[in-house]
Task: structure prediction
Amino acid sequence: MEITLHNVTFDCADADKLARFWSQLLGRPLDDGANTEIASIGISAPTPPRLVFVQVPEAKQVKNRVHVDLVATDLAAAVERALDLGAARLGDHADGGYQWTTLTDPEGNEFDIVAA
Result:
């Protein structure tokens, strides 16, 4: 039996708005048909990652238990780009030979950008 990752889903208040942030950040096109209730990136792509954004009635309450890690060859430039797109910086870290910055997207979902 094979199990594979199909997509990562974000609960959010405005699916279109949040999907546009991630589309711009990752340089991947938003799929057709995006609206405030549901939006996606790469849903027809043959391989993951696919990102899906689904509107939910409740607001985010606490820290994510799972988050997205991105990697960038120029950490400072990648963080600056994320901030320009609407992210917020939570902190800069270095441990175990890794350097990364923790940020939140416009709806407060945590993610890391790690230096390559």
DSSP finds two helices and seven strands in the chain.
